[in-house]
Model the fold of this input.
Amino acid sequence: MRQAVVWLLNEKYGGQLTDKAKRDITRLQKGEPIDYIIGHKNFCDCKIDLRYKPLIPRDETEYWVQKVVEDLQSPGVCKFTDPRTLYCLDMFAGSGCCGIAVLKNIPKSHCDFVDIEDNCLKQIRFNLKLNGIDKARYRIIKSNIFEKINGLYDLILANPPYIGLGEKNKVQKSVLNFEPKKALFAKNKGLYFIEKFLKQAKNYLAPERVIYLEFGYNQKKEVAKLLKKFNYSNFKFHKDQFNKWRFVKIRA
Ligand SMILES: C[S@@+](CC[C@H](N)C(=O)[O-])C[C@H]1O[C@@H](n2cnc3c(N)ncnc32)[C@H](O)[C@@H]1O
Done:
């Protein structure tokens, strides 16, 4: 706790213990995540504001999104060497961190952001402005997964809610009490949104393009079954920086 207080004071108040700082320390003592109190998080060289309380971007997500950016920057890896614009879809966008990382780091790119929650749509708009992204380079779409989506994308990024309802007791109290439940939990052992997403995603992917999907550390086997069920044949699982299975790169 002491370390968190010092960090908060330095990060937000230049080390000064003002009245507002004291109120923030009380929030911290009540268990609120420090990133909400500081109000933003850095993610792949972008500043991600959190005022509308989307899911706080996780380091595990930043790890694979950084790899996506690096892939896109290395000619040949993802075959995005053509001079035309890269079309990206950030499904389950939340704060917008994944798609904004692409827009900020890949100059010739466009991104559609999809979320079902109004606070997330506001947050995405705010963060796009904050990061100086030109309005012509994105659309923000309120949709239940693919319901309002048409067209083909070169790159689909997805970090769906994937914690099983039966796993609530394994989730940190501060997460349970303060972060949006709709961003975290899913029916069917956490696989409900992953299954819905995989069933449809290939219909929105341009030939030879790529999907990146994040999942829970204990879901690799089930995700592999779903990939087979929906006839995906070209995919590779990857671990995160903590050596846990975390994401799958799928080519269609
Ligand atoms: C795990 S969060 C991911 C947020 C962000 N992409 C990230 O990586 O930090 C999942 C997001 O999916 C959104 N969501 C939940 N159900 C949805 C649905 N049926 N259609 C679209 N988005 C949904 C939630 O509002 C939440 O923002």
User: Anything to note?
Assistant: The first strand starts at residue 40 and ends at 43.
